[in-house]
Every structure is written in C-alpha cells, then in structure tokens.
Amino acid sequence: MARVAEIDYNSFMQKRIILLTLFALLLTACASSAAGGGALAVENYLNALIAKDADAVINGSCLEWESGAQADIDSFLTVEASLTEDFACADSGPNQVECSGAILFTYGDEVQELLLEGTVYSVVEEAGEWRMCGYQ
Question: Which pLDDT score, from 0 to 100, does residue 126 have?
C-alpha cells in the first residue's frame, strides 16, 4: 500500500504567509521605483544639461520634447552652470515632477540664479524608461 504524505497544515500556512508577504513587498518596491522614476529622469536631465552632455539630454527626453531639449542645450553652451546643494526632485502628480533648489549659472562675471521651485516638469514612460517631456 502506498504511503500518503502527511501535510503539516500550520507549516504550510506559515510558508504561504511568508511568500505572500515577500510578494507584497516586491510589488511595493516596484511601485516605489516606478513612482520615483519620473523624478530621477528630471534630475538626470538637469544634471546632463548643466554638464553640457547633449547626448544624455536628448536620450533623457521623450520624442516629443527633443527639439525643446536641443533648445535647452543651446542655451547652456555659453555659460558655466551648477546645481545648488538643496537640489532635489519629487513626483508631484501623475506624470509631473517638481524640484527644489536652483541652477546657478555664470555669464561673464555675473552669477545668476534660476529657481526651480514653481516649475512643473512633464514626464512620460517611453520604451520602458521615464523621460523628461517638457515643463511649464
């Protein structure tokens, strides 16, 4: 006669709860990284812009914004720029990012400050990546 394996119900339920908990944590982590993806895209865009890295600016832009990205690059070619230490970006709504801090730029001997507060950046997910897609 074949022996029927006995299942320890409590052990089975504990393993099931652990697996479900791990799955929920994984989903939360994925959602958090997706939510922060737009903010990271804008941070990368602005860092590439002040570094005058045209390829990174264009690659970090959505297709619709490429001409705007080129205009942004062109406007920074003749200035030295940096971001203030308090620079940070965060998602502020669906497909929207807002940043704090400022861009400092030097034209000749004059240092000017472009405050980032109040600017709403549009972001979209294209080809599986978040990209900067304009601002207001």
Answer: 95
Residue 2 in any domain: the answer is: no
Give residue for tokens 């390829």.
55
Residue 2: the pLDDT is: 57
The CATH number that applies at residue 33 is: 3.10.450.100
Those residues whose C-beta lies under 8 Å from the C-beta of residue 16, and which sit 6 or more positions away, are: none
Answer whether 0.90 is exceeded by the pTM.
no
Number of domains in the chain: 1
For residue 135, the SS3 value is strand
Predicted local distance difference test score (pLDDT) of residue 32: 39
Query: 14 to each of 8, 20, 21, 23, how far by Cα in Å?
Result: 10, 10, 11, 14
1 is a domain residue: no
Collapsed DSSP state (helix, strand, coil) of residue 58: helix
The model's pLDDT over 81-121, given as tens digits with 9 standing for 90+, comes to 999 999 999 999 999 999 999 999 998 889 999 999 999 99
Residue 51: domain span: 9-135
